[in-house]
Q: What sequence folds into this?
């Protein structure tokens, strides 16, 4: 069993996985062309980084364009050639722990309504102590935010049913779980129906 670390003993780092802008959002191909999908992916990622701009942030990617964008935004870049979101995030998590982080929060770069991230980071998460905090997507299935203390053996389980899988993994590691239902942070953009959740600053992409 892992022993969760004291969240006051080190920094709280935000990890934002962004695979690519150029090849992003293929499931929107029926409503957006290649340029529109690329611009949308970048705007969504801009919004997420803006929302966590007062935190230490690591963008994990294997893409040169994303790496340049993240560096320009003032984020640390962790380059990875791993395949699959779970492996990419797992590598970034261990990287942050090796650098002394006491808590790591993973936020995808495609949230439609990320403005509430700052309040969550400064409120619920800072009070969570040794808990694993999960914000499911609006369907209650996927994981739109995952925040962990020091649990080096934690196995990330992105994909269908990941919210329940992450809850079970936290239990396996002996950590309490806090599930936060948030209608804004629960809205990511993958399919055309998700576009209705975009704010005014992003909707002009369509």
A:
């Amino acid at each position: 069993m892992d022993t969760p670390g004291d969240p006051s003993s080190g920094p709280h780092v935000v990890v934002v996985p962004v695979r690519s802008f150029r090849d992003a959002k293929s499931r929107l191909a029926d409503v957006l062309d290649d340029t529109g999908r690329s611009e949308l992916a970048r705007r969504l990622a801009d919004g997420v980084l803006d929302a966590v701009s007062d935190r230490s942030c690591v963008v994990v990617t294997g893409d040169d364009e994303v790496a340049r964008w993240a560096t320009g935004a003032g984020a640390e870049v962790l380059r990875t050639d791993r395949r699959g979101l779970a492996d990419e995030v797992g590598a970034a998590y261990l990287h942050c722990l090796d650098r002394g982080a006491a808590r790591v929060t993973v936020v995808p770069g495609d949230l439609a309504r990320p403005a509430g991230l700052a309040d969550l980071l400064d409120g619920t998460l800072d009070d969570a102590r040794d808990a694993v905090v999960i914000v499911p997507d609006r369907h209650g299935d996927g994981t739109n935010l995952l925040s962990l203390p020091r649990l080096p053996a934690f196995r990330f389980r992105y994909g269908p049913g990941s919210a329940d899988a992450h809850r079970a993994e936290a239990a396996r590691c002996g950590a309490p779980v806090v599930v936060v239902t948030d209608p804004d942070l629960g809205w990511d953009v993958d399919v055309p129906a998700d576009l209705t959740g975009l704010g005014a600053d992003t909707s002009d992409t369509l």
Summary: The first strand starts at residue 12 and ends at 17. Residues 12-195 form a domain with the Spore Coat Polysaccharide Biosynthesis Protein SpsA; Chain A fold (CATH 3.90.550.10). Residues 34-51 form the longest helix (18 residues). Residues 1-7, 200-206 have pLDDT under 50 and may be disordered.
